[in-house]
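Recall that a protein's primary structure is simply its ordered list of amino acids. Everything else, from secondary elements to tertiary packing, is in principle encoded there. The following example makes that idea concrete.
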Amino acid sequence: MTPSDNYEEMIREDSLPGHESRLEPKPEWEPRYPGSGRLAGKIALVTGADSGIGRAVAALFAREGADVAILYLCEHDDAEKTAQIVKAEGRQALTIAGDIGDKAFCDDAVRQVIDRFGRLDILVNNAGEQHPDQDITAITEEQLRRTFQTNIFGMFFLTQAARPHLRRGAAIVNCTSVTMYQGSSELLDYSSTKGAITAFTRSLSENLVKDGIRVNAVAPGPIWTPLNPSGGASEEKLAHFGESTPMGRPGQPNEVAPAFLFLACEDASYMSGQVLHPNGGMIVNG
């Protein structure tokens, strides 16, 4: 059994990342407006694209003209559904299953994208995991390493693999979180990784901007995806999910995807090192 197989087995025991196909009510992923060709002819790689925010991003990118590589851990039915969504928009889809916390997998995934499409224009580092704990002493070493391995190490590994193929005009969009700015009493390890992602985004931007490669991030608030109801949030928090936002509700994936599109396309040609905040009106000064 490979490290990725072990990881998949541990994830299944925790029920994460969760099947969108089993979630009720279903998250809203459908793009809300006709495409305008803002990503015409582009090749995008989106991690965690089988469900939630990743699926909504893949759908919107396809509507705007991009072919999409769909990276995911083990939810094959959800990934196939996303692929069908992309193809229904008249674009090509490539599904690749594996653990982004495994550097060898990231290298191989990018190689598959290049073999299939010949280039890579947009990298969306969206995949992540979270595990609620009320007390810091309850966070096991295994969980701590696993959360960092997926949430931040995976971004490093995938960006390292993609870097030789990214040319002037390419874009990287990372997914951080409102918890990076506000903190979270029961997501200590997850929030810490999101702080690292924001710093990674800003530093990587400084590193790549001279080469014409823009790096930005999106920091969603509470969004209705399989992540929380599949074990990523306590029952108490889930019962009132999103109610603490000024809008009084959780967001939907298709309310977040346009932020990724904006940062990935030429509309954001003068933006790098920045973070957008689709979070229901929470003021975070970030």
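The chain has ten helices and seven strands. Confidence is low (pLDDT under 50) at residues 1-14.
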